[in-house]
Structure formats: C-alpha cells, structure tokens
Amino acid sequence: MSLVERQDTLTADSLVWDGGHGSVADYVALLKPRVMSLVIFTAFVGMMLAPGDMHPVLGLVSILCIAIGAGASGALNMWYDADIDAVMTRTAKRPIPAGKITPQEAFTFGMTLAAGSVLILGLVVNWFAAAFLAFTIFFYVVIYTMWLKRLTPQNIVIGGAAGAFPPMVAWSCVTGDVNLESAVLFMIIFMWTPPHFWALALFKCGDYRAAGVPMLPVVAGETATRHQILIYSILLAPIGVAPYLLGFAGVFYGAASATLGAIFLVLAADVWRNREGDAARKSAVRLFTFSLFYLFLVFALLLAESLISGM
C-alpha cells in the first residue's frame, strides 16, 4: 500500500471530503504560515550574518525558496498526519480533517512546492544550498513526521533539527558552505525546541494521548517532562550567549541574551515547581508564550547588531 493510499484509508471512515473546492485560504493554511514566518525570519538573520555579499535579487529568491520549502514540509506533514489531526482539538479545523482539501490534493501540492523550491534554489543560487534544503524537507517529512513522531517521546528532540536548519540553509546560499557560526544559530533553535514544545504538550497532554502520539508527558509522565524542560533550559541559556562568546555578536547582544536566558530559566524552574492544578497549567502556558518571544528577540538582536555594524 502506498503512502497516499495509507493516508486515505486512515481517514476515509471518519471524514467526508469535497475535493477540489478548497479556497486559497485553505491552501495557505496547509503551508503552516505561522511556522513559515519563523522560518523566514531566522533564515533572513542567517543570511544577513553570513560573510560575503549577495545580490538582493538572489537573496530574495533564496528566502522565497526556503519559505516555500518550509510550506511544502507543512503541507506534507498535514497530509500524513490527517488521521491524528482529526482527533486533536488544536488541529481538528485544519483543511484536511475539516474536509476542505483531500489528502491527495495536499500531497500533490506539497510535493510540487518541494520540488520547485529545491530546483529553483539550485538553478538560481547554488546546488549546495538546494541539497541542504532538500535534506531539510526530507528530514521533517520522513524522519520526523513519518517515523519519529509516532515512534518515540524523543520525537521533538531529534525532529527539532528540521526547524533549526533554515539559518544554515540561508547561510549556505551566501557562502556555498556552512561553518561554526551557522552551526551556533542551528544550536540555539535546536536546544530551544524541546522546552518550547514540551511546555505546549503539558497543557495539551489530553490531545496527544487521544491521538496516540507518544509525546513525553504521555509516555514518561508530567514530572519527567518538567525535569527535561529544566535540563534543556539550562543548556539553552549559555548557547544563547554563544554568538557573543565566539565573537560574532557584541556586548549588547551578550547582555540581552543572558537576561533572556535567565528569564527562560526562571520560567522553566516555575514549571518544574508547579505540578498540580491550575498553577501547573499557567506556568506551562507562561513558558510556552515566553519561549516564542525568546527566540524572536535573540534573532532580532543578532540582526540589529549586524545591520548597525554594517552601516
């Protein structure tokens, strides 16, 4: 049975599709625009920090291809996960479980975008970056979505690499390779991902349990999840300061990122302490919400320093 047939079989009994009538908004939703916006931003920062010059048109093409590749990954993720999306309150209104787009349409849409983004990036920019983008899409769709997500509670840890690659892909668009500085950008996102998503999983645990997804709170329990959140937050704090320590960010970034890391740690410790009732839920929501601001501000500070130093 092919993957497409598998997905149709999994969801056909519970959903009725009116195929071919999805609106533009439905297809945009397949791209996971909120995730795409974060990918675009972190990729843009990676491009701006990379040494060397790049023609603005090539830069725009690079960012568009990375964004489209991220959208393709989102569409293929929704195609494969339509069965579990249908039983989770957070995802039940997505286009496929809502019956607005069929799995086959989503699969075709995602594969077309994936192939197009990689091909254009290779032909217009460079083939190293194109291969890196192809690997990123493969990692998210096959390694994370099809394999790890339903297999292990460490799905977010390993699968988080896919979301951390875009700054490195953008860096390689400029330089044709990657180096230590681009790897540090990767590590910031990579270490940020587990506490960010496990905080979400703590207050959405029922959804994941109902869908049969082995997220850490479902498999190991909430106490073990709180321990892991604290451990990863402790590791994230110095990695967030690493651009300053390695000399490619200034003192202002160093002080600001250290402050942001300290706040992240305080909130993670609050999640670790509060283990019962409404206080536990509120502490997890606070960490999840701040984690979004943390990643945005860290990369915004790097971008601001890069722009100021280039004046």
From TrEMBL:
Any one of the GO CC terms: plasma membrane
PROSITE patterns found in the cross-reference section: UBIA
CDD domains (alphabetical): PT_UbiA_Cox10
EC number: 2.5.1.141
Localization terms from the record: Cell membrane
InterPro entries linked: Protohaem_IX_farnesylTrfase (IPR006369), UbiA_prenyltransferase (IPR000537), UbiA_prenylTrfase_CS (IPR030470), UbiA_sf (IPR044878)
Pathway: Porphyrin-containing compound metabolism; heme O biosynthesis; heme O from protoheme: step 1/1
TM ranges: 35-51, 57-80, 101-121, 127-148, 155-171, 183-203, 229-246, 252-272, 284-304
Catalysed reactions, as listed in the record: heme b + (2E,6E)-farnesyl diphosphate + H2O = Fe(II)-heme o + diphosphate
UniProt keyword list: Cell membrane, Heme biosynthesis, Membrane, Transferase, Transmembrane, Transmembrane helix
GO terms under biological process: heme O biosynthetic process
Remaining remarks: Carbon 2 of the heme B porphyrin ring is defined according to the Fischer nomenclature.
Function as written in the Swiss-Prot or TrEMBL entry: Converts heme B (protoheme IX) to heme O by substitution of the vinyl group on carbon 2 of heme B porphyrin ring with a hydroxyethyl farnesyl side group.
Similarity-based family: Belongs to the UbiA prenyltransferase family. Protoheme IX farnesyltransferase subfamily.
Name this polypeptide is given: Protoheme IX farnesyltransferase
UniProt source species: Roseibium limicola
Organism phylogeny: Bacteria, Pseudomonadati, Pseudomonadota, Alphaproteobacteria, Hyphomicrobiales
